[in-house]
Amino acid sequence: MLFRDYDEIVQEAKKFAPVTVAVAGADDSAVMEALKRAELEGLAKPILIGVKSEILRIAEELDYKICHDSVIDASSPDECAYEAVRAAAEERAGIVMKGRIQTSVLMKAVFNKEKGLRTGRIISHVFFIKLPGYKFVGLTDGGINIAPELPEQAAIIQNAADFCHLMGLAMPKVAVLAPVETVSEKIPSTLYGAVLSKMADRGQIKGALVDGPLAFDSALLPESVKEKGIVSDVAGDADILFVSDIDMGNGLFKGLVHFGKGIPAAVILGAKTPIIVTSRADSSECKFYSIALNVLYAGKLKKAGEI
Amino acid sequence: MLFRDYDEIVQEAKKFAPVTVAVAGADDSAVMEALKRAELEGLAKPILIGVKSEILRIAEELDYKICHDSVIDASSPDECAYEAVRAAAEERAGIVMKGRIQTSVLMKAVFNKEKGLRTGRIISHVFFIKLPGYKFVGLTDGGINIAPELPEQAAIIQNAADFCHLMGLAMPKVAVLAPVETVSEKIPSTLYGAVLSKMADRGQIKGALVDGPLAFDSALLPESVKEKGIVSDVAGDADILFVSDIDMGNGLFKGLVHFGKGIPAAVILGAKTPIIVTSRADSSECKFYSIALNVLYAGKLKKAGEI
Predict the structure, then answer these.
(1) What are the backbone dihedrals phi and psi of residue B205, each rounded to the nearest 5 degrees, phi first?
(2) CA atoms within 13 A on the CB side of B108
(3) Strand A124-130 relative to strand A136-140: parallel, antiparallel, unpaired?
(4) Which residue in B285, B3, B242, B265 sits closest to B136, CA to CA?
(5) Residues of A in contact with B246 (CB under 8 A)
(6) Do B281 and A244 touch (CB under 8 A)?
(7) Contact A223 B281 (CB under 8 A)
(8) Whole-prediction pTM value?
(9) What is the complex's ipTM, to 2 decimals?
């Protein structure tokens, strides 16, 4: 199992804390509330980048005692993104976090060839969610890669698998989602399911048990697996759900969060430091848990010598 | 509003009942249980097509008094599909229902050019769901069309809009789902959102208020609309969610059903008669509500002179 619950993540993260978080567009109430809690619990020290007067006003409103030296005044979204990424590139920050700016603006700075945070790996996004009655499950990629081709799909799964390894899960179970369990030439996701499964069998994806095509219910629910008579080591027990495009990843995830009462957190994998991108509509609690998860991730990366 | 709840659908359906339902692969316990309830409530009279000995055994197990003349012995899935479609084509049945056979097998018989149930319209699928705290919402197409091009996308929305009109909702609100609300050349669903909106503005899709791109949460949740500052007549109040491929439609729907505690029902639009396709993993209650919804649909079609 990846994690039991968010308390376990917070407790584990404290072993590696505090980590400095550079926030691009910190002039946002829910973001500041999450940072306040993270700082009070000893998880994070923020660098607050945004409209300084607004940041100070929100801090006062939230009764959040911030260090004025940690505020960097920046008015445009591009400037916020650039300053946050620079802090990470110069190792003044261990994590970059999106505040009140668009994801695409932040990622443009991250992807910048000279001043960004690229490594040799693909940069991919994983949503994690704790659903009632089910273990922690990750969904990738619903945040960055739009419609990846096969080599990128395999690399996205490898990123998620390597994240699981860092977290102590040696052989994560990955379900490649499709609308059905049988291979059909007409449905590309069923072909990808078959191909990615075989790539894992042949060691082209390492340290993961991959199976697909599997419908959403077959990936997570033992009763669907039984009813449909599916024979699979992954079905009904997936740790990671792989989706072939961002539309499905994003829509499915939002459906699970808003109507499944699941608590979400997200990580971005493959960059020089962890990057936190939460949705504007997420609660400050969600944002706090994303900070905790990324502090843990930053700590484990450092311990493994990868940053 | 489309419907208040399933009770309203059942009560409305009774005004047009009973309708004869030809069931392809009736030798299935959950299907027979749903049919028993539909028959007891006066909604449906079944033609049971499948392995006769199995059908009789299940009927006895369920204490379901069936008319032996209504059973058609058929062993192969293809034969079951063919017989059910033939009953509808010859007007012995007003609805076709999938039992224990694959959707693709049933649809092959439906799509058959000479003996099938085609009309001039596109055949498309709509999942309906009643989610806690939200009105009835439809999701199309998560069941039949795999990755439709623009003209088919517009026709799928038109099918759903016309269904709403039949049910008394004159101007349904249709959200074209995407991962974000801004148009991005790199994300096809955002382009489709813009284009389909304009097609509705210009009367190329009739009797629907279409807006997109909208993320899932922005389509349904007023708090997300407010937080993101979206100005739209559709956002936060959608009746129909349009998804650009079957992967997303199927995955999102299953997520909402299994973790959102929503009760689902489905219709297939554009064929000569309504067609009921439920998932093998659906409960008999779901199957019963799908029968009720399709009886209502068949009745309204007949009243409108369309069959």
Answers:
(1) -120, 125
(2) 11
(3) antiparallel
(4) B3
(5) 179, 187
(6) no
(7) yes
(8) 0.88
(9) 0.80
